[in-house]
Amino acid sequence: MLADRHHARRTAAAAAANDPGTAFGHVHGLGVNPAEDTVYVATHHGLYSLDGAGERVGTSRADLMGFTVVGEDTFLASGHPAPDEAGPSNLGLIRSTDAGQTWEEVSLGGQSDFHGLTATGDRVYGLDSGTGTVMRSDDGGETWQQGASLPARDLDVDPADPDRVVATTAEGLVVSTDGGVTFAPAELQPPRPLVVVDHLPADEGGPTPLVGLDTAGVLWRFPGAAWSSAGPENGEPHAFTAVDEDTYLAAFGTDIARTDDGGSTWLVVSGSAR
To answer: What is the per-residue DSSP string for 206-267?
Structure first.
């Protein structure tokens, strides 16, 4: 169960507006900008920063279906323009290098709507909602190769191995070790299917820990040998990001919540958007 955000520990990434709850609407993605430690929220009505004001970033009100932070002030996104905004019905891949203030088209404008994006280095993966396939780019999103057809909900690339990507499906976790060309069920699965996943930095010489939230909103960790769970059922998650091994942010219903104790307790940190 989520606790009220007034008990949340105050850090830049956890700061929120005065009132709990949010007017963000449907949240599609979350990410922390390493340049300023601010949480960014990709929504049906544009990009917002969770920095105490809950304000829209820039002027675009595009429906950002896919979103990921790839570096300091550098974001990748996809989706659709707002009804009164110019542009193709599918944005393709767009990029911001000023923390979401402005965006430029990188590729596939008018063609693709990625409902999931993940990247490490120049390797980018996207879930193309139009074709139902995993797409891969080896040059930062300029050109693309089509991979496996997959009814995936979310995907995340292993930061230590760009050819290894995991995806969540209604039947369970699947893994690719060939750059998204083929996927196979993960050998070990949590009891309930995961909806959203993320990787943590690997210990030197060790496997990259995987974390995720299942259909009930329970956090699961897989450091390489077995799955372990932590915390309560919070409801089905819509978005998720791992900050470090103890700190995670997630969107549950109309709330954005944070845990600083590895998922044991969650505090609502979202504020009213404007």
So the answer is: SPPPEEEEETT--EEEESSS--EEES-----EEEEEESSSS-EEEEETTEEEEESSTTSSEE
